[in-house]
Amino acid sequence: MASSGFYAGRFAQSRAAFRRHRQNKRTLERTASRRTRRGLDWLNFFLADVQTGFGAFVAFYLAGLHWSQESVGVVLTIGRVVSALGLIPGGALADATPWKRALTASGLVMIAGAALILALWPTWMLVAGAEVLHGLTAGILGPAIAAMSLGIVGRRALSSRTGRNHRFQGAGNALTAVLLGLLGYVAQPAIFLATAALTIPALVALCFIRSDEIDFARARNAAKGAEAPSLGNILELRKNSQLLWFACCVALFQFADASLLPLASEQIGSGRSAQSSLMMSGLVVTPQVAVAILAPWIGYLSELWGRKPLLLIGFAVQIVRAGLFAFISSPILLIAVQFLDGVTGAILTVLTVVIVADLTAGTGRFNLARGAIGFLATLAASFSTAVSGFISQEIGRSAGFLGMGAVAAVGTLLVWLMLAESKPERYEE
After folding, report:
1. DSSP string, 322-375
2. Model confidence pLDDT, tens digit, residues 409-418
3. What is the DSSP string of 24-70?
4. I need a labelling partner for 90 at 20 to 30 A (CA). Which of 2, 144, 164, 233 fits?
5. Statement: the pTM of the whole predicted model exceeds 0.90
């Protein structure tokens, strides 16, 4: 009886704490006006819709037009290279310009143009130009959204706001992946016509964000009245040792992560079953659902527990995911394992924004630093697919998965030994 009373008391305390933390979380989310908050929510939702129209759908569409595998690979590589090269200057531009909404609108218009080219004029030169347009938006939209979020809510509420951003992005990704897949069965060009059309509600949502609520200095993580930094200031980032160690950890994570889904996809595709395309959709949609559920809580828990414990959990889950992929062949179980991708994705995407904000406080180089880390992560992801493909071909697919798990283990060790807790005891804005 005494033990049951003890556990009942603990349960009541836990429920009270949960309610208290939930209320605090809602308070942080209400930093800005309702109109601006809702505008930012739906901008993230429709932006995810728009971005989902590219990627794997481009390869699928061009293959249906009887393009050679080599031609498809070349135009996709052009897009990836431009995307990577645009991250650093795009971050610097987001820090320097006071017109964050105009920067976001320009990125949306570029995506609409790229989508219309793919749908209506799919010649080699024009498709290559469309991939350049789409690649450039990687250095525009992501930094602009992060800058607006920081400028609106400040560092104290950035973790909660970033989690909410990713909740709407995850929901948009999951819903649109299914919708565009269905449109592809009707007429493949409809995928890109729908993508272009979805930029319209995104622009409408952008109009609901009040420009007077975006503080210019706060949006670039600078002190009040500080001058906007130049692109040359990237050299100053190398003096920040914690930022450099964090960049190494993110690069290792992306190296371990980038090739896991392609390897699992090959495993499903090799079965050549009638349900292969459905299973592939499950692999893509499942982690997005997990991100939509978990991202807001990751942001809040980073304030409650700190950044480092959650970062360690994210890396450790990646090790488990790689190990499970190595020994599981059932497509249904592979889809279940992909839920772990959503866990790691929610942790790393939210914490990358939050930790970079912690480590660049007062410098005015928030998005420049994010761009530099994004560039390193993109390079790591590119090498990952090549290395894991070689290991899988020469030794076996299980070895490829285990190799990526070993890289995640090295990253976990690096986080444990080299990274300090970045959450400040007191926010100064």
Report:
1. HHHHHH---HHHHHHHTHHHHHHHHHHHHHHHHHHHHHTTBBS-HHHHHHHHHH
2. 999 999 999 9
3. HHHHHHTSS-HHHHHHHHHHHHHHHHHHHTSTHHHHHHHHHTT--HH
4. 164
5. no
